[in-house]
Each structure stands twice: as C-alpha cells, then as structure tokens.
Design a protein that fits this description.
homodimer, disordered N terminus, three-stranded antiparallel beta sheet, 6 helices, Arc Repressor Mutant, subunit A, three-stranded mixed beta sheet, globular, disordered C terminus, Dna Ligase, domain 1, DNA-binding, about 40% helix, alpha+beta
Chain lengths: ~170, ~170
DNA sequence: CTCAGTGCAAACCGTTTGCAGAACG
DNA sequence: CGTTCTGCAAACGGTTTGCACTGAG
C-alpha cells in the first residue's frame, strides 16, 4: 500500500508521457498516479486525497487536480460524471476497452458491463447522420439486485403521462 | 413570442400538477414553463433567463432554478448534463419517448436520435445482472457532418496504446 | 542555475439557501 | 389572512488560478 513501491508499468507509462512532453516527473505526480492505478473503482478527488493522506503523503488538492488533468490527457485515466456534483476517475489499464456503467439510484454502487450493441448504434449514427463517433457514454440508472432484495421500491412522482396533445 | 398567450396544453398540465400538490400557480412559474415549451432545443438557465428578459419578464435566477426543479419533478422537463459545467433543460412533449444525443465536440451542436438497441441492452442488464433499469443515458461525442465537411480534424494526443501489460 | 511544479488561499461559477416583502388561494 | 413564493444577496462546494517558494533536470 505504500506509494513508494518500485515503479509499476502504469507509472512507467505515465513517466514516459511526461518526459515526451518535457515535463518533470515529480514525486507528487507519481504518488497520485499510484493511487489511481492501485484502485479498481471510480475515485473522487476526495478519495484520492484520503488515500494519499493514509499513505503518509500530504499533497494539495490543486496538485491532485492538475495531475489528474495530465493523466486524463495521457489517456491513462478516464473522467466520469455520474451527476453527483463532482467528477470521478478510473484508470484505463487492462480489461474492458468499452465498458458502460449501471448506477444504483438507491445505494450509488457503480457496476460495469459491456455492450457490443453500441457498435451497431455507432455504425447507424455514422451512416444515417454522417456523424463521426469518437467517444460514447452509456449509463443505466436503476435499482441494483441488492437493493431490490432489500425491498427498496421506487416512488414515482410526477405526471404519469405528460405526452398527450402537442 | 409573448409569454402571456392563452395557456397551452403544456402550461395546463403543469398547472394541474401544481394544483394537485396544493402549490400556487404563479405568473413566474407559467412564464418559465412557457419559455421551456416554446423552445425545441436544450436550454441552459442563462438561455431561459435571456428569453424571459427578451419577453419583458424580469425573473430572478433563483426562481428559475426553483421552477425548473418543479418541472423536472413533474416529468414535463428533462435535465441534461453534457459536461459543460452547467445543466440544460428540454421539454418532454410529443416525439421520441426515448431519445439519445450525439454531441459535436467541435461546435457543441446536440442532435437527437433514436436507438432501439437500448431495449436489448436493458434486457440483458436485467437478466444478466438482476438490475432494474429506470433511466438511461446514451451520449455519443464526435464530429458532426458540418464540422467534418469544414475540414476539422481531431488532434489525438496522449499515449496511443496505454493498454499493454497489467 | 533555471524553469516548471507545488501548496496555500483566494477566486470562480453554477447552483442553493435565508430572509424580508409580495402574491396566491 | 395565513401560507407559499419571489427576489435579492449571501452562502455553498467543487474546481481553477495567482503567487511566493520548492524542487526537478
């Protein structure tokens, strides 16, 4: 759990990226990168700050934001916004090149899944609209199995069928 | 373009919603609702405020936010976040019950399209993960036809293939 | 040594909230 | 008339930025 372990492949890739751009490879940048790679979840900046502090590092939020910006630009890390009012970050090493998210509106748990149907959607968009897809985002919000088993019901409010006349 | 025209079906539905909840139907609420229904685009709060001002109304931002909250809860209006740092709002009358968005990363234009493939995805999520879908969001970011025709190229930066070793 | 990075605190900006006065029912 | 709304301005919270100082190359 220390942030001082010998450089992982991820850190090495990040260092290379920085060096290619002529940017210094600082201790702080390595530490932030290390935290992001060490987790397989979707980290908030507070999560990252907490993990750093737990590892004995004391790095300012500004530096964390600035480093995350570099990580996102290097494409080693992906930025997510699940509508919580802040961003979350996830490394892009190994597994699912395309991975979508289902988010439980009750407990907030984020689970990933794959959807090859999206290829079809992108092809249609390309041929039918002449649109060139680069990046996509599919999020399904609902109730996870655990919450359903726990008896959670979704309370619908609002008009049942607003679509009537035009 | 006046906000004082006889109540449209939309306004009537909204009034009914408010009355059902025992809430007053105020002039401001009708004016905000009128602006949202009068546009077929994706409005920011500033857009709405501007349209109100252009119509001779002077309504505070706080009231606009509070009214939008009611409109969203009534399900007459949908809230979107395209990652611009603020929200956009779109009425849900008529057309596409399911409509996804493709967003041009160059000019910001948002175009809607339908994707029945999503039904399949939701079914899979339900059967494979026991997840109960309620709401979904699919956004495809890329280059619209106009920007491609105008010769816009996407400059890739970052590591080409970060996925190597684990 | 020099130039970029870091930390702190202040600035930012979209959104929310508290409160005195106005309006709905 | 009591209750809710409105408008203003101040508060909020995540993120960004300016600046003096530290550290990488």
């Amino acid at each position: 759990m220390t942030t001082e372990q010998a450089s992982s492949p991820f850190i090495r890739l990040f260092s290379r990226y920085l060096r290619d751009l002529g940017l210094p490879v600082t201790h702080q940048r390595e530490a932030v990168a290390q935290v992001v790679i060490a987790s397989d979840g979707h980290l908030s900046v507070d999560d990252i700050e907490g993990a750093l502090r737990a590892g004995g590092e004391r790095i300012g939020k500004a530096t964390i934001y600035r480093t995350l910006d570099l990580l996102v630009r290097s494409r080693l890390v992906e930025e997510h916004d699940f509508g919580e009012g802040f961003k979350r970050y996830e490394h892009r090493l190994s597994n699912n090149p395309i991975h979508e998210h289902m988010i439980c509106v009750e407990c907030g748990t984020v689970t990933e899944f794959e959807s090859n149907e999206l290829y079809r959607v992108e092809n249609r968009v390309r041929t039918e609209h002449g649109f060139l897809p680069v990046r996509r985002r599919l999020e399904i919000y609902g109730l996870c199995k655990d919450c359903q088993d726990a008896g959670v019901e979704l309370t619908k409010e609002g008009l049942i069928c607003p679509i009537e006349i035009a």
